[in-house]
Amino acid sequence: MPDVAFEDAAASFNPLRPQLTRVAYRMLGSVADAEDVVQEAFIRWMGAERADVREPEAFLRRTVTRLCLDHLKSARHQRETYVGTWLPEPIIDEADVDDITLPMMLALERLSPLERAAFLLHDVFGLGFEEIAATIQRDASACRQLASRARTHVREARPRFRVEKDRGLELANAFFAASRSGDLTALGEMLAADVSIHSDGGGKRPAALRPIVGFNSVMKTHKLLAALFKENVSQFISVGFINGLPGFITREADGEIQTTALDTENGKITAIYVMRNPDKLRHLRSGGVDR
């Protein structure tokens, strides 16, 4: 027999699941953690007196945000002991459709959990401070101050301009070709003077433990990598937008997939973000991206 209570809860919850997952992912930077939080919210929704809830969307958004705040208390400790550079899990889109780019998500990491919640709910998802106050259990004026402080911290990470889709994908393809073929002249022409590389191996795969900063250091790194690529072919899988930045997915010599995202300004690459941690790429493999 069908579970009527489950079906009733799912009917009202499932249309909201994508938006709730977006909130959770931007709070946590982890696809798996976001999905766990949203599933926990569904379990709580099943046990709630749903007939008494006048605005299910607001109720569930509050539930998800509070669960995220609880999760961050433990997640922050885990990141303090993280091996090397921490990057958020990559989300792949066919086009740049999100204001929350990878650099901005890194800026959000430097905020307190309450600042992050107030900023995301107000500036990204457009909620009023009264609803935010009910969500994070602070008064509206305090929420306004939290969002203002957060806005100041993330201002520099906000996208100054949109890279056109075709130009972004063209740059990603050109960077892959130059970096894998060892064409350092072509590669150098793409890079800004203050370019940096940020790679996340999570202690599971080789990666630089600290960012590599500056044109000369980045070029030296790619010269060393070019020698490795000659012996170990890097297989191109696809190009797209990764957390709002143009980039590409590859399968490397060890058989694992990898994502590379490129931040740009004035037509030059200012930062290269490489995800190598297999734990953070699991959702892409399960989604069939490397098949």
Helices and strands in order, then pairings?
Layout: H1 4-13, H2 17-28, H3 31-47, H4 56-80, E1 92-93, H5 102-109, H6 113-124, H7 129-136, H8 140-154, H9 165-181, H10 184-190, E2 191-200, E3 212-213, H11 215-231, E4 235-242, E5 245-251, E6 257-265, E7 268-275, H12 282-286
Parallel strand pairs: 2-7
Antiparallel strand pairs: 1-4, 2-3, 4-5, 5-6, 6-7
Helix pairs in contact: 2-3, 2-4, 3-4, 4-7, 6-8, 7-8, 9-10
Description:
By secondary structure, the chain is α+β, with helices and mostly antiparallel strands. It folds into 2 domains: 154 residues, PhyR, sigma-like (SL) domain (Butyryl-CoA Dehydrogenase, subunit A, domain 3, Up-down Bundle), CATH 1.20.140; 122 residues, Nuclear Transport Factor 2, Chain: A. 53% of the residues lie in helices and 16% in strands. The chain contains 12 helices and 7 strands. A 7-stranded mixed beta sheet has the order 1-4-5-6-7-2-3. A hairpin with a 2-residue loop joins strand 4 and strand 5. Helix 3 crosses helix 4. The mean pLDDT is 89.
Keywords:
291 residues, alpha+beta, Butyryl-CoA Dehydrogenase, subunit A, domain 3, Nuclear Transport Factor 2, Chain: A, 12 helices
Summarize the entry for a quick read:
The chain has 12 helices and 7 strands. It is α+β, with helices and mostly antiparallel strands. The relative contact order is 0.12.
